[in-house]
Amino acid sequence: MSREPELASIETVKAYWDARPCNIRHSRKPVGSKEYFDEVEQRKYFVEPHIRGFAQFDRWKGKKVLEIGCGIGTDTINFARAGAEVTAIDLSKESIAIARRRAEVFGLTGRIRLYDGNAEELPSIVPVRHYDVVYSFGVIHHTPNPARVIDHLKRYMNADSELRIMMYAKHSWKTFMIEAGLDQPEAQSGCPVAYTLSHDELRNLLGGFDILSMEQDHIFPFVVEKYVKHEYEIVPWFAAMPQGMFRTLERKLGWHTLIVAKFASVAR
């Protein structure tokens, strides 16, 4: 299991994400406005269109969702908008403050409970109960001890619950670019912890779970210098590639490993 560049303290990780919450710059509108949140959502799902299919928001209407690492609440809002009862936690107080404002703006505070805290200490922060789905997209690989988080999640699941998580893929186009010094794990530099895991390492991490599916997706195709200006020009080598070929490459070397699993043991 690889990480960038060495194990850091949880305080260092928290300071990093408090300084610049994930996706905070997805809109130039005033932070906290409806227009801002609408643009953040539009850009997130434009760049990462596989999220909607993986989260299956509409499927959880009337169900209970536990989200680990909600950030500024884009997926959180979509679960709640679809009719789910959502409980979410994030290490970053700054992110939680924006997610809380988002719930207020869209009139969804009654469907969303937000906690700020360390998911490695989950049971001391979020009351233990069973959820229909435990969801985490691109978060658990940023905590110093992912296995501790995974172990806690079992207490929030029963035999019918699903685990849906995204973890960074070790065997991916982006990993190759990072190793060549041509990329970095996050949009902002200096990410204290960013594990990448092979499929075998993920199976070991998820001991005690029955893995229903494990697939890779997502290669970022845009010219970064233009993307930060909200311009979407595809880099020449991907622009010249037939769409079918690019999708095959994403499925083989995508940065995101998408895992669906069930808790194998019914013992509590």
Structure commentary:
- The chain has 268 residues and is of the alpha/beta class.
- It contains 11 helices and 7 strands.
- It has a 7-stranded mixed β-sheet with strand order 3-2-1-4-5-7-6.
- Strand 1, helix 4 and strand 2 (85-90) form a beta-alpha-beta unit.
- It is globular and about 50 Å long.
- It starts with 9 loop residues before the first helix and ends in a 5-residue tail after the last strand.
- 38% of the residues are buried.
Fold topology:
Elements: H1 10-19, H2 34-47, H3 50-55, E1 64-68, H4 74-81, E2 85-90, H5 93-105, E3 112-116, E4 133-137, H6 146-153, E5 162-168, H7 173-179, H8 199-205, E6 209-217, H9 224-227, H10 236-239, H11 243-253, E7 256-263
Parallel strand pairs: 1-2, 1-4, 2-3, 4-5
Antiparallel strand pairs: 5-7, 6-7
* Biggest sheet details: 7 strands, mixed
Q: What does the radius of gyration come to?
A: 18 Å
Overall, the morphology is globular
**Structural class estimated from helices and strands:** alpha/beta
- Helix share, percent: 25-40%
**Averaging pLDDT over every residue, what do you get?**
94
The total strand number stands at 7
Strand order of the largest sheet: 3-2-1-4-5-7-6
Number of helices: 11
The H/E string reads HHHEHEHEEHEHHEHHHE
How much β-strand is present in the residues?
15-25%
* Low-pLDDT windows of residues: none
Spatial separation of the terminal alpha carbons: 29 Å
Short summary:
A 7-stranded mixed β-sheet has the order 3-2-1-4-5-7-6. Helices cover about 35% and strands about 15% of the residues.
